[in-house]
Amino acid sequence: MVNGQMSSETDILTSVASRNDPARVEWQHIPRMRAYELVIRQIEDQILAGALHVGDQLPAERDLAAKLGVSRAAVREAMRAMEAQGVVRSGVGVGPDSGTFLTSMPSKALTQFLRLHMALANFPIDDVLEARIMLERWSARLAARQASADDLTAMARLLDAMDAETDDMQAFNELDTDFHVAMAEAAHNTLITEMTTAIRHSMRSMVLASFRDHGDWPRLSGQLRTQHRAIYDAIVARDQQRAADAVEEHLRSAYATLGWGSAG
Fold it and tell me: What does the pLDDT look like over 180-202, one tens digit per residue?
């Protein structure tokens, strides 16, 4: 009986010691936030709550710092970060355009994000190709269904300008970019337009370098012109399937010709 009692007391002591063992306590890490991050969070909260909208002017730097109990330097840093995100724009001087306003420029932020991460090879080029095909097939379908006369005119002007641009690769590259953006705009879907614009703009330098490395510019530019015309003709004919197929054929052909990813 003594041995049994001792065993029971030992178990109780072990249990108590186990419950009081600091190593068993699970602490949750509390992330440290810098002052400017707190400013951004306050503004985000106001946007999500519906208190702030596109076009609204934020309080002046001194006033916002006082309201939030932070330094003016923290407010300045927050505004710089949000401007890079395409959420605010700042105007200097006096007059109606001075101050900081909420804006909506998602393609600017997406372009910066994609350009850096593509340069760091965080997005494999094959993944970029497939993403472009998904986006631009849908853009072409929507454009073939609902492009306005003005949309078609804008696309036609870009094609004519590409036909006239025989030697300047950089100018041709800009027109090529503008054509893909114009097709996305003709789809009249804001999100598709912004994403297409961001991806194509993020690739400008890469495309231009590939143009210069190709070795047969007249043949390459002629191929691209022909493919762009095929896309445009299908959109004008309101043939959604043909427009989508023409875009995919163009993208896959261009990636293979320029030697990108497994397509090359």
Answer: 999 999 999 988 888 888 888 88
